[in-house]
Amino acid sequence: SAPLPSLAHASALRRVLPAPARAAPRCTATAPAADALSSAATTVAASLPDLPPLPAPLAAILPWFSWVLIIWLFAAQARICDEYFVPAIDSCAKRFKIPDDVAGAPPLACG
Question: How crowded is residue 105: how many other Cβ atoms within 10 Å of its Cβ?
């Protein structure tokens, strides 16, 4: 078997071989730009007027109203998808002769 190189050989190689190039940073945003954006957002937030507090009955109803609104939005999305999205996928599948199992993948991906 060949003998292992000594540390003298390793230091000689380090002097001959170039140092590895450092990778350029991927982030192009600089710290001053980020600071300027942060200070601009703080300035805009400080210039907005404070909202008055909600009356107690309205503050109690607001969380329930939010849930009703969310449920209504999901129902509206389901109806629109059933009436417009699915027929559009069906007509495209028939026109381009796409099999039904492949044409059914986009509605499944949408949830």
Answer: 11
Residue type, 99: P
Give the length of the chain: 111
Look at 31 and 63; give whichever has higher pLDDT: 63
Provide DSSP, 11-70. HHHHHHSPPPPPPPPS----HHHHHHHHHHHHHHHHHSPPPPPPPHHHHHHHHHHHHHHH
Question: Is the four-CA dihedral 89, 87, 84, 76 of positive or negative sign?
Answer: negative
pLDDT of residue 83: 94
**pLDDT tens column, 55-89:** 888 888 988 999 999 999 999 999 998 899 889 98
**Cβ distance 54 to 62 under 8 Å?**
yes
- Nearest 10 degrees: CA dihedral of 91, 94, 100, 103? -50
Spatial separation of the C-alpha atoms in residues 29 and 38, rounded to whole Å: 13
